[in-house]
Design goal:
Blueprint (H helix, E strand, L loop, with lengths): L25 E5 L3 E4 L8 E5 L4 E9 L2 E6 L2 E6 L3 E2 L24 H13 L6 E2 L7 H4 L3 E5 L26 E5 L4
Antiparallel strand pairs: 1-4, 1-7, 2-3, 4-5, 5-6, 8-9, 9-10
Length: 183
């Protein structure tokens, strides 16, 4: 409820106009489902989420790891590292299983976003594995990606210290395992 003594009638016809968006310097694509935020600061509010592959006009400003974008005619902020010059869904009618990769076509959208981000940011990584038979749900349900590390033996002095499970694959020495949430 509102008490009318605290309100006043505005003169008719005047509607506040939104601040025009600044000039843009290009377009970037969301590599994952991406939060649209009110500012670049830690207390920013999320006003929307755009799906992977959404094209966003950028202003060129980056603060606190966030890039300023134009969304619905106004400026907002997104996490800069999840933007790419390349549309992760371009050519999505083709198979993701290239360079020896397997099981990527049946991944969930979030997991496909991980594949797109890795391919965009780390082009030397070629082989990834996704859906496969497993008693655990992450790979079986398309929620996990194994990102295979090229020449991993050359750099294994520091690594995951776990009990020996019998092989470099079982010990996670030759790949990074990423599991995403269900959409």
């Amino acid at each position: 409820w509102v008490t009318t003594r605290y309100t006043r009638k505005l003169s008719g016809g005047h509607q506040p106009q939104p601040t025009p968006a600044p000039g843009t310097v290009g377009v970037r694509y969301a590599l994952v489902a991406l939060d649209i935020r009110t500012s670049s600061g830690p207390k920013a509010k999320t006003i929307a989420e755009v799906p992977m592959g959404t094209d966003l006009k950028i202003t060129g400003k980056v603060r606190n790891g966030r890039a300023q974008v134009v969304y619905r005619g106004a400026t907002y902020w997104v996490t800069a590292r999840y933007l790419s010059r390349h549309d992760p869904l371009a050519g999505s009618t083709g198979s993701l299983n290239i360079h020896g990769s397997k099981g990527l076509d049946k991944l969930t959208p979030y997991a496909k976003g991980i594949v797109a981000m890795v391919r965009s940011k780390y082009p030397k990584i070629k082989v990834m594995y996704g859906v496969r038979h497993s008693r655990l749900p992450d790979h079986r349900d398309g929620l996990a990606v194994d990102i295979m590390l090229p020449n991993y033996r050359a750099n294994n002095a520091l690594g995951w210290r776990i009990a020996d499970r019998g092989s470099d694959n079982a010990n996670h020495r030759n790949h990074v395992h990423v599991t995403v949430k269900r959409a």
